User: Fold this.
Amino acid sequence: MLLAPELEEYIFSALVVKEDHMEIVQNVHLIPNVIANPYLIIEPASLTLIDSGIPGSEKKILKYIAGLGYEPKYLKRILITHADFDHIGGLAALKKISGANVYASKIEAEAIGNGRSSRQLKPEKLLSKIIYALANRYAKTAPVQVDDFLVGGQMLAVLGGLQVIETSGHTPGHLSFFAPSANILFVGDSMVSDDNGLYRSVKDNTWDHTKAIESVRKQAALGASIVCPGHGPVVRNASSKFTQL
Assistant:
């Protein structure tokens, strides 16, 4: 693990979903106990992963996959919402072990290929400055070559059709993924959640607040009943909760 112990403990206690097993709907799982929620989609002959957690998370992800009866070689696709270290930390190891193809937007792919974030953070609050300074020092990610660029409106042959949604704001090339057949929306960090509901990306790590608002409006119009954020619990009956954003 490349994080300083104090930073790792703080982030884990604040952001991780602590469960032993979680099937959201049939064939869609939240892999728990990982910082920045990774989601696993199960198809008859392949697995698709959305995001890969912080560095070292590949161990928990592969253990979870094994617990479902799958070898690493069944992981065929890794979809990345954005290039922050807590979403791409396990990516290099997972790609090497499984041979999976990696997909991201062009902007985020360039950052992933350089092992860095896609935007420079300029925090204003002292605590945020301290956290980001530690993260920049200790949270290093290995560069990974993205195999294919994704664009908004593209439909992937996953989960009966998984639509790529451009949701810039948190980062310049942030993507979300919507599966109409399951009415489920994977939002990365364009939104976060807690036990009280959904919140748009508003903190110092948001690249463009105006675009973040536009992205939430775009996602609200999809009418998803289940929202799967990068941080916080899965939100059900979500269509009635977008108004609070």
Notes: The chain has seven helices and 15 strands.
